[in-house]
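Journal club side-thread
Mid-discussion, someone asked how the predicted structure for our own chain would compare to the paper's figures. Pasting it here so we can look after the session.
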Amino acid sequence: MKKISKMIIAAAIAIASLSPAIAKPKFRTVEQIKKSGTVKIAVFSDKKPFGYVDENGEYQGYDVYFGNRIAKDLGVKVKYVPVEAASRVEVLATGKVDIVLANFTVTPERAEKVDFALPYMKVALGIVSPESALITKPEQLNGKTLIIAKGTTAETFFTKNYPKVKLLKFDLYSEAYDALRDGRGDALSTDNTEVLAWAIENKGFAVGADSLGSLDAIAPAVTKGNSDLLGWLNNEIKSLEKEQFFHADYEATLRSVYGKDSDADALVVEGGKI
């Protein structure tokens, strides 16, 4: 019996050694971030005016303004990490960053992979196209080519609801907009906040449809299971309400783009309350 028991135990150990290890999410607590002296935040580098690199090589935009405040209140420096839309989940899961602030729309599917904090912005989808062939509703794109960025809510929305629309997909927003300028597609769709800003700065283009789908929330994201950092972020967003921080963010980064008569309340969320 002893020999049999030993054989069973040995076999169990051998099987366990052959089984792939279950990868645990990699993340840092607030205390670990503070001890390191740096918080790592993923932002877009080519999505003006929300996250972009200016002519001096500095990160700027609505998301970056918030990221700077997060670092200040943590008492650390900030390291911005450029991210593509399709890799926002991956950079958290692999521990490359602590927080994603990259126009990350909250969806049930994404919430299964990351933990979203309270929202700081609201958004719907929009379509920008040449003024000479303006697209005013999605049905006009049936049989035509729509440019989108991979891993975005625009990709999900049109794939699900408009299968007759041909999607031309790019990793980078800069590549997508270049394709629109070059005439490789009939229109481009992404967050309405961004296409409206882009059309203002690019003559010959206009937003014909500015509110597609549902009104969605944009929120910071942390690695799944990082309840410590998630709680800190939620408290931070709540505490910033009394100073109307995100309205100040709008004035500093978006007012000059959208114009003096634009309505900040159409985009801004204070205290995490939509």
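Post-session note: Residues 14-22 have pLDDT under 50 and may be disordered.
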